[in-house]
Amino acid sequence: MKVKILSTSDVHGYIFPTNFSSKADYQPFGYLKAAQVIKSIKEDAADDEVIVYIENGDFLEGSPLSDYIYRTRKTKEYNQIFCKMTSLLDVDAAVLGNHEFDYGLAYIKETLKNKKYPIIGANIGGEKAQDIIDQPYQIIEKAGIKIAILGLTTQYVPHWEKAENIEGITFNSVLETARKYVPILKEKADVVVVAYHGGFEKDLDNGKPTERLTGENEGYALLSEIPGIDALVTGHQHRKIAKKVYGVPTTQPGCRAENVGQISIELDNNKKIINSHAELIDTSKRVVNQELESLLTDLKRDIENWLDIPVAKINGDMRIHDHLAARLHGHAYLDLINRIQMDVTGTDVAGSALFNNEVSGYDAQITVRDILNNYVYPNTLVVERISGADLRAALERCASFFELQPDGSICMTNSSSIPKAQLYNYDYYSGINYVFDLTKPVGKRVLSILYHNQVLKDTDKIDVAISQYRAVGGGEYPMFNITKSIRAYEDDMPKLIAKYLKKHKKIEAIQPNNLQIIK
Question: Domain 5'-Nucleotidase C-terminal spans what residues (predicted)?
């Protein structure tokens, strides 16, 4: 007998093969393509093959489509599409990702109420856990083979998420939870699968740490410390992984359904594992699943019309032509985002990130499409009162993202993209003048900080507007802490940007000059 474990992870609401940059845009990814892969594998399965499909989290949030569905949830029921699609594909079990919580527990419960499969989460507890979690694990019996799936979600969620979004929920240790359940499941099933919305904290070949060991990612520890795991499905980091680690086949299929993970396990007549293999199935050249696509005709029409609503006009060039230059010298788009943050919060200093190199800035006519494609996260705003020393430490963290090459050129460090792209953790600030000397060692690169044309002292206090993710220290910014918060705002940034632009119909594109680089 052979067991095939299929998985999707970090789809992030990218159902169609498009990033919605235009009505004609077409991209080689999307859940409709992955659905066709899964459907074909199930239809082509041999008599001695058992197929299991796991949806591994971060499915509901992350795209213009998912943002539209959330914003229209009270007038339309498009959020039920998610359950209809996954149920048609006969999902065997699903795990919640960290971004599922961005919209709060009530939205998770409402959106997934009609599912035909269990949401599993062994390390999610608390008085409200039963609202969103059905059970800690799922045991499936097919063709006489018992397959146990243990669900785990990165325990680091409280370090990013707004407290009200996870009120009544606890995230317990992934390692301790697996240590408890894997032996139990080993007694109950022939094959034990761990479905973990989390990634790897160490190099899979040599075991050396690839990030700070915070507990956010513990895939390597799971495999090195917990015996009895027969297959590990991972996600969260958006990496493309298919290999054996400590003899255990493991997958991580990237993001936006660009791949389907597949783990194949062969058993003998005594139901003992004799062979296993991991691979990723590229979805880029696959056609979309027409059955699922037919469910989405009205949604596709409505979202495209909504995205093309005009909001404001730009005088000048606010397109991002060089992302490295925008990070090194600031950019009119980033300065506008910071100005919006300052306008909302009443502060005169703000920091924001150029999330990735797909952010394009604004055309002369700004539409809803432009707002959502450039600001892809539902971040809310927080004002923190910090010291000059705190701000200097934050800027040192920003300066650490650059690397000076022998020929005098500058590039982003490998750590900003390996093993996971983390460009969203570099912030550009408005409201201060500051200097990075890249000839200096990391940690000693900030030469000066001027605030109101005065040198900012370490003992000075300053109010800074930042995202809620950054305000809780997200992205390795321990100098920020929610205990330093003096104000917080409920509306997310895409909504605040749209509101500001509707009020200021004409925006001047002005290149800032407050960040100086010495190389």
Answer: 328-481
- At 242-298, the pLDDT tens digits run 999 999 999 999 999 999 999 999 999 999 999 999 999 999 999 999 999 999 999
**Angle in degrees, CA 488, 216, 403, rounded to 5:** 85
- In DSSP terms, 518 is beta-bridged to 437
360 and 235 in a single domain? The answer is no
293 and 321 co-located in one domain: no
* Amino acid, res. 53: Y
Transcribe 57-121 into DSSP letters: S--SSSSHHHHHHHHTTTT--GGGHHHHHHHHTT--EE---GGGGGG-HHHHHHHTTT-SS-BB-
Which residue shows structure tokens 């990723």? Answer: 280
Looking at the structure of the chain, the number of domains it has is 2
Contact 245, 220 (CB under 8 A): yes
Q: Which residue type occupies 132?
A: I
- Rounded to whole angstroms, how far apart are CA atoms 29 and 23? 16
Predicted TM-score of the model (pTM): 0.91
Q: Are residues 365 and 292 in the same domain?
A: no
Q: What is the CATH number of the domain that holds 358?
A: 3.90.780.10
Q: What is d(CA 204, CA 194) in angstroms, rounded to the nearest whole number?
A: 17
Range of the domain at 139: 2-303
Q: Are 469 and 160 in contact (CB under 8 A)?
A: yes
Are 455 and 423 in the same domain?
yes
Residues 392 and 247 in one domain: no
- My answer on whether 452 and 415 are in the same domain is yes
Residue type at 313 in one-letter notation: K
Q: What is the pLDDT of residues 160-198, one digit of tens each?
A: 898 999 999 999 999 999 999 999 999 999 999 999 999
Same domain, 20 and 65: yes
Q: What is the DSSP string of 374-385?
A: H--S--EEEEEE
Q: How many CA atoms within 13 Å lie on the side-chain side of 309?
A: 13
Lookup: tokens for 86: 């996954």
Burial (CB count within 10 angstroms: exposed 0-12, middle 13-18, buried 19+), residue 181:
buried
Q: Which residues contact 418 (CB under 8 A, 6 or more apart)?
A: 210
Which residues neighbour 199 within 8 Å (Cβ) at sequence distance 6 or greater?
A: 217, 219, 234, 235, 236, 237, 239, 252, 419, 420
The letter for the amino acid at 158 is P
